[in-house]
Design a protein that fits this description.
The chain has 4 helices and no strands. By secondary structure, the protein is mainly alpha-helical.
Amino acid sequence: MGERAINREKATADDIEAMRSAVHQGLRAGAFGFTTSRTNSHKTPTGEMVPGRYSEVQELLGIAPRSRALVTARSA
C-alpha cells in the first residue's frame, strides 16, 4: 500500500488480495510463516507507529485463508 499505508488509509479489497497473494507466494517458496506487529514499541525511524499497527481486523483475517491450507498441509 506504500504511502497510503503510511497515511493510515484503510486497505481495500484489492489491497487485501495483493497481501494475501504475496504471503501465499512466500509460503509456497518456503517461508516458515508470516507475522505482523501491533505492539507500541514497533516504530518507524521518525518515531511513528508502523502502518500495520493500525490494520483493521478484517485486513489481518483476509490475508490468511489461502495460506492456512499450505501451512496445514506442511505440518501434516
